[in-house]
Every structure is written in structure tokens, then in C-alpha cells.
Write a structure and sequence with these properties.
This protein has 251 residues and is an alpha+beta fold. The chain contains 7 helices and 11 strands. It has one domain.
Length: 251
């Protein structure tokens, strides 16, 4: 998959060139001038493929967030959920995420990321200072959730992972550190957190990069749900040339 100079909407994050999560969820701050809303790329070829999944809104109530992204992994070994071939996408509509122009193969969903800003003021009277800070927050899917998301992507089709529900654990802790996340993370969560952020071990409570555990609650890939997801996909990406892939999706 190509990586464009200012295309922050869909990024190939291979094991040789991993991008830390703090950068991945705050790329707008690093690459000023790039849009925060991801345009839908057209198929690069007649046999181009895509993957879709519906995830719950990661933002907490009354705490707006932006730059929502989902990270997929393309598996390189059979029966092994761990891979260093990662792809991140910001192509999303109503919590439906799309990985477009995906290479054929097996894919799993591994993380949802977003950025959240805080602002306030310090001081009193006529002497006050304002402050703001952007947090890169990352929800790592549990091994069960990752395994349940596994799909095989064939050339020229849209693969549907289904509609998932997660229990996000550890987010209400005050300034959680990476060590607090790792203490209770399963092996799959810990592996992909390290893949996203090679400096994970150094992230203390003052770090702007935060990590939470997304435990599996349920997923639905029944025929009625798949039909609804495909109908939604037709509205979201069909007009940009993906109608054939949607029509070829397994039902």
C-alpha cells in the first residue's frame, strides 16, 4: 500500500518503520495543513479490496475527541494473531471504519486511537495563564476481540468484520501510566501496544500517550447485521467507486 507524503488518513505502519502512538493519534499537530476528515480513496485497481468494522464510539461522554483511527494488522503467519504489518485508517462514518486498497490476506482489528484536548486557566485576579494539552489515547483490543475480528480478504471484495461492543477498562484511572496498562493487559494487547509505540515502557503518568484495555463484550456478524453494514457501506464509500467490492462481499 502506498504511503503519500501528506496522506494521514490511511497509513502503512510496517515493523521497520513503526510510528509511535503519540504521533499516530496526533498527526494533525505534526503535519500541519493535512485535513482531519479522511477523504474516501478510490480503488487503485479493478481488483482492489477493502475491510470494514463497526466499533463503539471511543469518546467518553461529555469529553469530545477527534482524529479517530483504527489500526488493523495483516497476519503473516497462519494461526498467529501477532503481526508486525500494521495499517491505520481514519476513513470512518458513524463509527464504521474502512481500510481501503487492502492487500489480500487475513486481517484483524487491534486498536482504536483518538486525540483529546484539555484546556484551563491558572492564577487569580488580573494575572492568569491559560494552558492546553492534547492527549493521544489508545484502546488496545483484547485477544478475544482480535480473534473474533479475523477475516480473510480476497481480491475485489469488501470483507466485513461485524459490529463489535467493548468494555473499555482502565480509562477512569487518574493519569494512568503505561506500566499500569501493561500490568493487566493480555499478551495480544501488550504486543500491539509495543508495536504502536516502541517507547511504551517509558510512558509515565505525565505522558500525553495513554493506553487502555478494550475487553470483548460481543460481536454481531449475523445476516441481518451484515446486510445493514453493507447498506451503510454503500452510502459511505459506494459513490467513490467501491460498489463492486460491496457487491462482492460474502453474505
Amino acid at each position: 500500500m502506498r504511503q503519500r507524503s501528506c496522506d494521514i488518513n490511511q497509513i502503512n505502519v510496517r515493523k521497520t518503520k513503526l510510528i509511535p502512538a503519540t504521533v499516530m493519534v496526533s498527526l494533525l499537530l505534526v503535519l500541519g495543513g493535512c485535513a482531519t476528515t479522511a477523504p474516501v480513496a478510490e480503488p487503485e485497481a479493478a481488483g482492489s479490496s477493502a475491510v470494514m468494522i463497526k466499533m463503539p464510539n471511543p469518546c467518553m461522554p461529555l469529553m469530545p475527541c477527534k482524529d479517530k483511527r483504527l489500526t488493523f494488522a495483516r497476519l503473516t503467519e497462519n494461526n498467529n494473531l501477532l503481526s508486525g504489518e500494521l495499517y491505520q485508517t481514519a476513513v470512518s462514518f458513524d463509527d464504521h471504519y474502512y481500510l481501503l486498497n487492502a492487500e489480500p490476506g487475513q486481517y484483524v482489528a487491534v486498536a482504536v486511537s483518538y486525540s483529546r484536548g484539555t484546556a484551563g486557566s491558572l492564577g487569580s485576579g488580573n494575572v492568569q495563564a491559560t494552558f492546553s494539552r492534547t492527549f493521544g489515547e489508545n484502546i488496545l483490543l483484547s485477544e478475544e476481540a482480535v480473534e473474533r475480528s479475523l477475516v480473510a480478504v480476497a481480491a475485489g471484495e469488501l470483507a466485513v468484520m461485524g459490529a463489535f461492543e467493548l468494555d473499555i477498562e482502565g480509562r477512569m484511572a487518574i493519569a494512568p501510566s503505561a506500566s499500569a496498562f501493561l500490568k493487566d493487559a493480555d499478551a495480544t494487547q501488550a504486543y500491539y501496544a509495543h508495536q504502536l509505540d516502541p517507547e511504551l515502557e517509558s510512558r509515565g503518568i505525565t505522558s500525553s500517550a495513554k493506553y487502555y484495555r478494550g475487553s470483548y463484550l460481543s460481536d454481531d456478524n449475523s445476516e441481518p447485521v451484515r446486510e445493514q453494514l453493507l447498506n451503510n457501506a454503500a452510502k459511505h464509500i459506494g459513490a467513490q467507486g467501491w460498489s463492486i467490492q460491496i457487491g462482492n462481499a460474502q453474505r
